[in-house]
């Protein structure tokens, strides 16, 4: 089965740069780019939604089909 | 599919005022997921709070909300519930608001067993007012008013609630985000006074004074200290030293609920005329 990749949307207007999503991503998908979180390696994403769940600022959306 | 939080948030209110890494946002997301799971109607749900960082929460949620005097969330919420017993009344607040200034309201709401859900975000400190120690600050920890260490032992909110007569008591942490909405769902479904204590982090006024280098360190601490109730049954007292139990800690479905009992009083009084 072909792996479908999700779309990770980061709303920079809401992001406060707390690092929670980057640190607790089990697959190291995210990184800090300057002040905000950004996607580093989307291929590795397993859609566990941990970043979306733990983002205190409503700044991450993991959109899966 | 990404969860649609926007449905429950007042338009234009985000970004919220909480500091970077503050767990209150995680708890708010948990509350929104719980309300969505239960398919609560906005016009039949009231979120009531007192004063404090955590008490800013109702300002963001799009349903009936009430932001009241410091510590008086339980008193105002009791009024709402008595006037409209069909409302789902949810109280939110911090540890200082709930157990110090509102300590009396809290224990008496527990004693009455009125059908409300109280979510206490315990970050061990008064964040908004400048980091004074709260009744939940652990012994020896530093706050702006205890720079050489807090001499007082801290409150155990869950034990206090059980002792005061609450019929559903649960505890979660901001790290275990997945569990928060499940606990809140159970608490709202329970007929009677439910207390959900969420252990939280305050990186700005508590973390910095207590040698936590980052938000991540505080989150990892929550991860380490939390032990689920079931896992704790198999552990020795020694292993449980310094740990905090999480999950549903107490449940009693037999105690009569206050608004139902009060309706009977009204009936008896009307019949006596």
Which structural traits does this protein have?
heterodimer; A: 65 residues; alpha+beta; B: 273 residues; Rossmann fold; eight-stranded mixed beta sheet; two-stranded antiparallel sheet; 10 helices; 10 strands; 36% helix
Write a structural description.
The complex is a heterodimer of chains A (65) and B (273). In chain A, the strands form two sheets. In chain A, strands 1-4 form a two-stranded antiparallel ribbon. With 65 residues, chain A is α+β, with helices and mostly antiparallel strands. The longest helix of chain A is centred in the middle third of the chain and has 5 residues, at 20-24. Chain A has helices at 20-24, 50-54, and strands spanning 7-10, 30-33, 36-39, 60-63. The mean pLDDT of chain A is 90. Chain B has one domain (5-272): Rossmann fold, CATH 3.40.50. Helices cover 36% and strands 18% of the residues of chain B. Chain B is built from ten helices and ten strands. Chain B has helices spanning 24-37, 73-83, 95-101, 103-112, 157-164, 177-189, 203-207, 215-225, 229-233, 258-271; strands at residues 45-49, 64-67, 88-94, 117-122, 125-126, 132-133, 168-173, 194-199, 226-228, 244-251. In chain B, the strands form two sheets. An eight-stranded mixed sheet of chain B has the order 2-1-3-4-8-7-10-9, with helices on both faces. In chain B, strands 5-6 form a two-stranded antiparallel sheet. In chain B, helix 9 links the parallel strand 9 and strand 10 (244-251). In chain B, helix 1 packs across helix 6, helix 3 (95-101) packs across helix 4 (103-112) and helix 4 packs across helix 5. The longest helix of chain B has 14 residues, at 24-37. The chains are: A alpha+beta (65), B alpha/beta (273). Chains A and B meet through helix 1, helix 2 and strand 4 of A and helix 1 and helix 8 of B.
Tell me the CATH topology of chain B: Rossmann fold
Q: Helical proportion of chain B?
A: 25-40%
Order of strands, main sheet of chain B, comes to: 2-1-3-4-8-7-10-9
Overall body shape of chain B: globular
Instruction: Please report the distance between the alpha carbons of the first and last residues of chain A.
Output: 15 Å
Number of helices of chain A: 2
Fraction of residues in helix of chain A: 10-25%
CATH superfamily of chain B: Thiamin diphosphate (ThDP)-binding fold, Pyr/PP domains
Biggest interface between protein chains, with counts per chain?
A-B, 24 and 26 residues
Which ranges of chain B are low-confidence, i.e. pLDDT below 50, for 5 or more consecutive residues?
none
Low-pLDDT parts of chain A are: none
Give the overall pLDDT of chain B as a whole number. Answer: 93
Q: What is the name of the CATH class of chain B?
A: Alpha Beta
């Amino acid at each position: 089965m072909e792996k479908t990749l999700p779309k990770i949307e980061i709303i920079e207007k809401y992001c406060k740069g707390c690092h929670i999503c980057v640190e607790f991503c089990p697959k190291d998908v995210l990184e800090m780019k300057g002040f905000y979180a950004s996607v580093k390696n989307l291929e590795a994403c397993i859609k566990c939604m941990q970043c979306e769940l733990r983002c205190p600022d409503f700044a991450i959306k993991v959109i899966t089909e | 599919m990404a969860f649609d939080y926007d449905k429950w948030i007042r338009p234009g209110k985000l970004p919220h005022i909480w500091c970077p890494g503050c767990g209150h946002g995680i708890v708010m997301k948990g509350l929104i997921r719980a309300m969505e799971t239960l398919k609560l109607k906005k016009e039949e749900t009231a979120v009531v709070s007192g004063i404090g960082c955590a008490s800013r929460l109702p300002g963001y949620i799009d349903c009936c909300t009430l932001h009241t005097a410091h510590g008086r969330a339980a008193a105002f919420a009791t009024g709402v519930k008595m006037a409209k017993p069909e409302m789902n009344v949810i109280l939110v607040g911090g540890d200082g608001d709930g157990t110090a200034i509102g300590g009396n309201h809290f224990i008496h709401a527990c004693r009455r067993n009125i059908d409300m859900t109280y979510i206490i975000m315990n970050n061990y400190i008064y964040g908004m007012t400048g980091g004074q120690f709260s009744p939940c600050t652990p012994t020896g920890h530093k706050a702006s008013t205890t720079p050489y260490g807090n001499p007082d032992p801290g409150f155990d909110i869950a034990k206090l609630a059980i002792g005061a007569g609450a019929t559903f008591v649960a505890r979660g942490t901001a790290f275990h985000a997945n569990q928060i909405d499940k606990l809140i769902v159970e608490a709202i479904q329970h007929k009677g006074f439910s207390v959900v204590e969420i252990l939280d982090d305050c990186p700005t006024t508590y973390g910095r004074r207590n040698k936590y280098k980052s938000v991540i360190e505080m989150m990892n601490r929550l991860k380490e200290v939390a032990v689920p109730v079931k896992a704790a049954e198999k552990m020795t007292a020694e292993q449980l030293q310094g740990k905090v139990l999480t999950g549903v800690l107490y449940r009693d479905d037999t105690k009569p609920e206050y608004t139902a009992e009060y309706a009977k009083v009204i009936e008896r009084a009307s019949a006596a005329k």
